[in-house]
């Protein structure tokens, strides 16, 4: 994966069918909260596989006998996560977790009996899931009961034929997981796109650097091991999970300690913990990860009538009372990062507008604010993505500028790549 990745695991609150766990939680509110949270990946936890190969979301059957039988509105709700104004660009479904149930032991037995061909129940059921919910980008494998490399390889290859990517979610046994990665990458490079490393509870002693070293040793110098490990921590909760979990400030502190490993993201366990605890928001936790990672968050402020935009590394730096902060636009760099150059801020009035560039070129009617807003790369380097510059003409032929990771923003004229940063 390129750019910065922040993920959150979601339990019952992500399911739109009514049940005893979420009957009073409006799914639209959950979807909208996640879209505005700053998290780039949502992981639906957990899909279980029974001895018949049925897929069960927690304790609700969603696929059986090659047919989707879950809530009919779930697909549209999950698709909405990645539509419109949203930070979410990826949806994963997670299989497994600690026993019971023994999901991967069941998968192992089914593969031994039927294989993974088009007539097998595993193939039929995962195909039915993908057909019913095409917004699913990948399957997260949280094998904590079987540890059979041949099974993981066969299952992952089957998922690949159905259009899924794969992530691993280990808490222990690095040799098994790294050897499985090596076997799969040798056959199908790029199928496995990351390790969601558990660093709480049973995985509380995990150090991302140790896992990075193990991957680098096995995969060789050409493999981006640093960009492959995404450590996860538990949010503050009332359930006693992971000793009560961590506050956003504690999350930032821990990720700051991991900076030297070169990680490019992380994740939070779980969304329902955050909502039930009540003191913090999902956005607080997404920002907590970002603040602890290498790079500097750049916040987007916007105002209306007409729409205009302002970018700053200070989350409290509003340019005026009618401007509102709308989240993190991207992750830039500080002056100490090797190879970066300053991004200068220019402004123009009537109405107040802002532009940003690395060339020092000042367009007619614009003023150099004598301010370096942040630092970025002039050319693309490993892990960075382009920020595109767009413009429109306001009444009176005034240029209005907008900067985005999106290469196709409708209603704006694209001028090209302005600079390179991490994603958001």
Task: Note down, in words, how this protein is organized.
With 424 residues, the chain is an alpha/beta fold. The chain folds into two domains: 5-294, Glycosidases (TIM Barrel); 297-421, no CATH class. The protein has ten helices and 20 strands. The chain has helices at 27-35, 74-80, 103-114, 121-132, 149-161, 174-187, 208-219, 248-257, 271-277, 282-292; strands at residues 5-10, 41-49, 55-57, 60-64, 67-68, 90-96, 138-142, 165-168, 192-198, 229-234, 265-269, 296-303, 308-312, 324-332, 341-348, 353-357, 367-376, 385-394, 398-404, 413-421. The strands form four sheets. It has an eight-stranded parallel β-barrel with strand order 1-2-6-7-8-9-10-11, surrounded by six helices. Strands 13-12-14 form a three-stranded antiparallel β-sheet. Helix 6 crosses helix 7 and helix 8 (248-257) runs parallel beside helix 10 (282-292). It is globular, with a radius of gyration of 23 Å. The mean pLDDT is 92.
């Amino acid at each position: 994966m390129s750019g910065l990745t922040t993920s959150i695991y979601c339990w019952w609150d992500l399911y739109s069918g009514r049940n005893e766990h979420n009957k009073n939680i409006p799914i639209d509110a959950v979807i909208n909260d996640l879209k505005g949270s700053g998290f780039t990946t949502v992981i639906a936890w957990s899909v279980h596989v029974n001895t018949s190969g049925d897929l069960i979301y927690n304790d609700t059957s969603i696929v059986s006998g090659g047919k989707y039988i879950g809530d009919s509105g779930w697909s549209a709700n999950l698709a909405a996560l990645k539509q419109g104004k949203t930070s979410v660009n990826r949806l994963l479904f997670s299989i497994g977790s600690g026993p019971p149930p023994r999901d991967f032991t069941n998968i192992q037995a089914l593969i031994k009996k039927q294989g993974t061909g088009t007539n097998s129940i595993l193939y039929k059921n995962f195909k039915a899931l993908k057909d019913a919910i095409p917004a699913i980008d990948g399957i997260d494998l949280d094998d904590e009961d079987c540890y059979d490399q041949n099974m993981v390889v066969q299952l992952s290859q089957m998922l690949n034929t159905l259009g899924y990517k794969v992530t691993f979610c280990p808490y222990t046994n690095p040799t098994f997981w790294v050897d499985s990665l090596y076997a799969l990458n040798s056959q199908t490079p790029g199928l496995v796109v990351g390790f969601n490393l558990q660093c709480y509870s049973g995985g509380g002693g995990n150090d991302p650097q140790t896992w990075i070293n193990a991957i680098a040793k096995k995969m060789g110098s050409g493999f981006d091991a640093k960009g492959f490990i995404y450590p996860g921590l538990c949010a503050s909760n009332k359930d006693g999970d992971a000793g009560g979990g961590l506050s956003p400030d504690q999350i930032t502190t821990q990720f700051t300690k991991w900076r030297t490993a070169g990680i490019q993201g992380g994740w939070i366990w779980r969304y329902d913990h955050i909502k039930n605890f009540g003191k913090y928001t999902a956005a607080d936790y997404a920002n907590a990860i970002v603040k602890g990672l290498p790079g500097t968050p750049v916040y987007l402020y916007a105002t209306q009538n007409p729409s205009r935009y302002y970018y700053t590394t200070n989350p409290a730096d509003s340019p005026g009372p009618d401007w509102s902060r709308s989240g993190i636009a991207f992750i830039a760099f500080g002056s100490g990062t090797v190879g970066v150059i300053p991004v200068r801020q220019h402004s123009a009035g009537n109405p107040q507008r802002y532009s940003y560039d690395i060339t020092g070129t000042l367009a007619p009617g614009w003023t150099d604010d004598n301010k370096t807003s942040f630092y970025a790369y002039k050319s693309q380097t490993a892990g960075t993505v382009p920020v595109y510059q767009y413009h429109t003409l306001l009444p009176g032929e005034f240029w209005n500028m907008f900067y985005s990771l999106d290469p196709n923003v409708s209603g704006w004229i694209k001028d090209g790549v302005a600079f390179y940063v991490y994603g958001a």
